[in-house]
Amino acid sequence: MEFGKFFRVIKKHKFTLVLVPIFAVIITYFLVHNQPDVYSSQAKLATGIVDQTQQHILSDALDLQDSKINQQFSNLIEMLKSKRMLDQLSYKLIIHDLTSDRPYRKPSTLLSQLNASAKQHALATYTDLYKKRHALSLFNRDQNGLHKLLESMKYDDQSILKTLLVYRVQNSDYINVQFDSEGAELSAVVVNTLCTEFVSYYTLLVKENQRKAVNFLGQLLQTKQDTLNAKMLALKQYKIKNHVLNLNEKAKSLYGQMSDFETRREEAERNAHATQSAINDIDKKFDPAARQYAESDKIADAQKVLSTRTQLQAVTDAYVQSNFDPRYKQKMDSLNGAISAQIGSLSDRYVLNPLSTKKDLVDQKLSLQVQNELAKNSNGSINKELNRLNTKFDALVPHEAATQALESAITIASQEYLEILQKYNQANMESNFSTQLRIIEIAEPGSAQPSKKMLLVIISGAVSFVFCIAVLFILFFFDNSINNASELADRTKIPVLGYLNLLRNKEIDLKTVWDNNKAAGETRHLRYLIQSLRYEIETEMGDNQVLLINSIEKEAGKSFVAINLAYAYASVNKKVLVIDGNFSDPGITRFTKTQYYLEDLLPGVLDKSFVTGDSMIRVIGNKGGGYSLLEIGGEQIVTEKIAALKTMFDVIIIEASALNTLNRSKEWVQFSDKIITVFEAGNSITDEYKQHIQYLKQQSNKFIGWVINLVRPENDEQHY
């Protein structure tokens, strides 16, 4: 439904949709038909970013992500289109035009006005800026003038960018540079100059960065080498100062000796315990008197044994302290043999007591006592040696910690040195290679491009047509006006009894409308609509007789509706009274030129001759002046007169003023049976309308619906 309305709007403005594109096409044609031909030239740059054939031996593997690759290409493209590059191009172009007899472009008005000295000054300034790669300062008055000179020749950066196209060729390693201008030679020169300047600048920039990197890494490498040498020297001096040769080997040797002495100490303790236990067992078997007898006979021999045993103990200590030197082992064996001989001699000279039978036990005890003493003495010597070895081992721990710290620092310094050395070698090697960016295709003067004049003309027509459609759609979308009965019913939720169509003729003869033989076309359609409205009103009124017709605003067509409705009732043989109750604008009174007025009727006596005659329609007008009904006659008088008129007429139609006249319209409501409100098509429901609509809804027992007037043919829901 909404699309149908929109198509009707388009149909209404069909001439606009045709004329506007035609005018746009004509204007575009005159604007573009004198434009010069366009020549295009392009060059191609190889970057070496994704082309493996351009990678040298130190280049990283081609494992870059697409985002990283795209970023590198974007950086190159933006650098090529930067103001620094375009300024260099601008200087080259203007220098050529100032020094050549064949300039690329026709001299502008500003350039033609320069004298010889001014041109010489401009040439010197441009040349100096080109060599120094500096931009013009717009804050400087002289250089600002030179910039305006570039603008006049369209050699400035903004003018060049308008037709300069720089892009990556799909996913390849190449960048295309394209420029369009009115001259074939100019297009080729711009592209080649820009590419040459860019490659030169990029090469200079890369080499300068590589030189700085090599210098920085060289200085850093020297610093790391000095640090490494200092740490190695500190370790060397520490070992010399503390007599440290090889801590690991020395610690292993001490640990082995300590383990050997631990084993010997355990063996000596075991022998001491064993021999002491055996001696204690033998002592339990001797009688005290017999032991005294036997020992007194062998005192001299026992003293020899003790002397030899003392010598054996000294040799044993020397043997342990010498880390078990074999030379001391022979002496120990010799002393052990001497002790054994002395003990044997002591046994041979033993004088037995007749009461004693334990000769063998005495000899065994003496031998065990010698072994016990040897075990105890060797245990003491071993403990002393173990204490000495532990002391030496403990002294190694601080040296080990210090040397480990120094060696760890040397390891880290050496690692850092090797990493910096690798980077330095790589940077130094890369600085000797040429840059990968180069021109592989130079631009050549091309032929004129196909003319786009006709395309621009067609586009202008199409764009203007679409623009008109868009404007009409926006107007339609934001249009809140009500144009037919269905829209009015939807917006107000109040029934619409009927509508009246808009007539093309401003003047209308009611006799023509209601003459069956003469009415035709839209006039005949109007009569059908009024007859339909009369039927709907008659159905709603039932036995009621007084119908009030009002509107929300003035000039909605109340008078037209009231008079035509009176003719419609008269056509069905009903006697109709039309009362012009609009004291603000008595249109019916002026139209009918009646001789009867409310100002005379209400205060006076009703003249019954008023209703005599053959006419089925009678009209009571008013003299205007802005009065209200109750100001002319009281409520009781008006009620009585309305009641009297009901007996004389079948239908009484009252036209009241608009609701925005407040009481002058609302005073008629209390004297009417039913109310219809005329709404002019094309109006919108504003906040003021909503207040009056709410008032009408409150009159639900009297208000029966709308009548929409002046409906345009395109919004007419019926056909004739």
What does this structure look like?
The protein has 720 residues and is α/β, with parallel strands linked by helices. It folds into 3 domains: 2-209, no CATH class; 247-424; 485-715, P-loop containing nucleotide triphosphate hydrolases (Rossmann fold, 3-Layer(aba) Sandwich), CATH 3.40.50.300. The protein is 61% helix and 10% strand. The protein has 25 helices and 11 strands. The protein has helices spanning 2-12, 14-32, 66-80, 83-99, 109-112, 116-132, 141-152, 157-163, 184-241, 247-283, 288-297, 299-321, 326-348, 359-430, 453-477, 485-492, 510-513, 521-541, 558-570, 587-592, 598-601, 629-632, 635-648, 663-666, 687-698, and strands at residues 39-46, 164-168, 174-181, 438-441, 496-501, 546-551, 576-581, 617-620, 651-656, 674-680, 703-711. The strands form 2 sheets. Strands 5-11-10-6-9-7-8 form a 7-stranded parallel beta sheet, with helices on both faces. Strands 2-3-1-4 form a 4-stranded antiparallel beta sheet. Strand 2 (164-168) and strand 3 (174-181) form a beta hairpin. The chain starts with a helix and ends in a 9-residue tail after the last strand. Mean pLDDT is 80; it is low at 350-357. It is found in: Cell membrane. The chain crosses the membrane at residues 15-32, 454-478. Residues 552-718 form the CobQ/CobB/MinD/ParA nucleotide binding domain.
How many beta-strand segments? 11
- Would you give the CATH topology of the largest domain? Rossmann fold
Note the beta-strand portion.
5-15%
**What's the story with the biggest beta sheet?**
7 strands, parallel
Helix content: 55-70%
Indicate the overall shape: elongated
Q: Please state how the strands of the largest beta sheet are arranged side by side.
A: 5-11-10-6-9-7-8
Low-pLDDT residue spans: 350-357
